[in-house]
Amino acid sequence: MYCYLYDEYIQGNKRFEKELALIENRLTDLGISGKVSRLALFRNAEEMIRDEIGKGVTTVIVLGNDDTVRKVLNVIAESRVVFGMIPIGPKNELARLMGIPEGVAACDVLSARRVETIDVGLINGRKFITGVRMPQFRAELTCEDQYRIMPTSVAELEIQNLAEVSNPCDGLLQTVIRADVKQGIFGRKKRTESLLPLKFMTIRSDKPICVFADGEPIEGTRFDISVEPLGLKMIIGKDRVFS
Amino acid sequence: MDWRSWEFTRLKRCRVFCSGFNTWLNEWQPNGAPDGAEQSEHRRGDKVDEAHSTQQINCFQVKKLTQATISGYHLVQYLLIHAFMGHDKHATGSETIIAQGVKVEGEFRSNGNVVIDGELNGSIATEQSLYIGETAVIRANVAAKNAVVAGVIVGNVMAPEGLELLATSRVDGDIQTGKISIAAGARVNGSISMGE
Q1: Which terminus of chain A is less hemmed in, N or C, by CB atoms within 10 Å?
Q2: What does pTM read for this prediction?
Q3: Which residues does residue A179 pair with via DSSP β-bridges, in sequence order?
Q4: Which residues contact A21 (CB under 8 A, 6 or more apart)?
Q5: Does an H or E element contain B62, and which?
Q6: Which residues contact residue B85 at a Cβ distance below 8 angstroms, ignoring those fewer than 6 apart?
Q7: Which B positions 15-74 lie with beta carbon below 8 A of chain A?
Q8: How many residue contacts between A and B have a Cβ separation below 8 Å?
Q9: Which of B155, B125, B127 is nearest to B139 (CA)?
Q10: Contact at 8 Å (CB) between B158 and B174?
Q11: What 8-state DSSP symbol labels residue B33?
Q12: CA A124 to chain centre
């Protein structure tokens, strides 16, 4: 049984009206139409989804973008239902990585129902799918409680779960540290890249720092990051970036 | 990007440099100035001074030797790394690279291949191959299945399957290995034991 969750920004927006009508018709034609729920400012998305799952929903499809996925990811991953999306509008990086085309073309991907179970990341108890970024990495990274890593020059930290070069089904988070190193007499800058596949790690800093988990900023002095292997079932397209 | 891709990228950049250098070399004439007209005249088989043609042949040989040396150096480096470290498909995906600009402290353990170009204090242990780059400074005891060292290690080294010390390497500690290769220029301050 399918449940379709419409994000706030596409409801009542004339820009997406025609697209929505086409999508609804296509879903009906394919025989995968279901209950429609609409997110609103004063409605808790997680409670709404829990109620629907309690009524027997086995597949939850969100119509929106990366922000919409972030609102419902925690409860979807906990409940182990199949998750899909129909990307509409801007900021749809997750859909691109999963091979899901924008708009009405996504309906055919949902109908094909190619389900893949992927890893889910956790940062201070919050779930993320693509990864965590820290543009100015000046903190200490403790890896699997065994060793610590510190940058000796200006560096950028990226922890990837789902990306072009990382496998989201291997139970590991690919940690990438990009540092600018001065070389030679003239001090020419050279970009180096360190790669560490890890299961869990901690970022510690004396001063508050900001990291971006799936694009959402989180501030703090300590971040505990780990991976939940095969924690999310998702409908993917054939143009996904991972094999 | 795994360390092989990193090496491929470096190799590609060297090829770009080599191709540019080759282009310059191809245009370089024995008299020192690129002059297409003069070269075409020679190709028509005009009689030329013998000394001048000998000089041309020598310069041509030098040019080709230089090109071959540049390509050969990088080919040998690439083959050395890949042949020595192997293509362990099971290790792909768990390869670790610690590049320059990063410092590691503590007990570093890995199940896959490891490439180190930065600093490390503590201890290193891996079940697969270890490559220590020229810019790496390791103040730790090292344990790996086999290892290629081009940097500095201050600590003991254990590599049961084999150890290759390149010309820029320096090891201040004891070595325990089943097979060893030491290039001219490598420095070892410690004992080497190769018993069972």
Answers
A1: C
A2: 0.72
A3: A155, A192
A4: none
A5: helix B50-85
A6: B113, B129, B131, B146, B148
A7: none
A8: 76
A9: B155
A10: no
A11: S
A12: 15
pLDDT means per 10 residues in chain A (243 residues)?
Answer: 88 85 91 87 81 89 90 88 90 88 90 91 92 91 93 91 81 92 78 92 93 91 93 88 72
Whether B93 and chain A come into contact, CB under 8 Å, resolves to: yes
Element at A160 (helix H, strand E): strand A155-160
- For residue A214, give both structure tokens: 């799936």
**Angstrom distance (rounded) from CA A13 to CA A18:** 10
From chain B, pick out residues whose CB is under 8 angstroms from the CB of A155.
101-102
Tokens of B101: 């600009």
Predicted ipTM? Answer: 0.83
| Tokens encoding A228 | 């939940």
- Which residues of chain A are within 8 Å of residue B8 when distances are taken between CB atoms? none
- Local structure of residue A11 (DSSP, 8 states): T
Residue type, B55: Q
Q: Which residue has the tokens 């900023």?
A: A217
- Tokens, residue B115: 């490439």
Beta bridge partners of B131: B115, B148
